[in-house]
Amino acid sequence: VDALGFLASQASKATIRIFGYGLAFQRHGMKCKAFGISNEEADFIDTEWYGLANSIAKEAVEEVQSTMDPRTIVDMEYIDVGPYVTVGACSTEDREMNGLSSLFPGWYHPSQLGYDRYFEALLDNLSIQ
């Protein structure tokens, strides 16, 4: 929060966007085909770890916005990529999140298709089409 507050105070005319995390597994009721991950583990990690990380990121942005000097105008927003990144590592086709089979350090990070979805979320947030 301190780093975001400092950034906002020093770059008040900047457009600042903080992205959430795409859920790594996204089982959607199917059997998870991610190497070495059970259905229960996939659900737990998506809900607990990624859910917590997204909550923290969103709350940090809200905290910075609420504590800024009212005379400072900061264009800072949290972008939820959940509606955009919808195919996780549990899938075997068109993954937007890499599984263990990708090259390290890409494990459980967006694939190129996933980064394309992040870009779509940014364009929609900025209303650029």
How much strand content do the residues show? 5-15%
Strand arrangement in the largest pleated sheet: 1-2
The radius of gyration computed from the alpha-carbon positions, rounded to a whole number of angstroms, is 17 Å
Q: Give me the number of helical elements.
A: 3
Structural class from helices and strands?
A: mainly alpha
User: How many extended strands?
Assistant: 2
Mean pLDDT across every amino acid position: 88
Q: Give the overall form.
A: elongated
Topology order in helix (H) and strand (E) letters? HEHEH
Give the fraction of residues assigned to helices.
Answer: 40-55%
Regions with little confidence, pLDDT below 50 for 5+ residues:
none
Major β-sheet annotation: 2 strands, parallel
Distance between the termini: 31 Å
How does this model look, in words?
The chain has three helices and two strands. With 129 residues, it is mostly helical. It has a two-stranded parallel ribbon. Helix 1 crosses helix 2. It is elongated. The relative contact order is 0.20.
Give descriptors for this structure.
single chain; 129 residues; mainly alpha; 2 strands; elongated
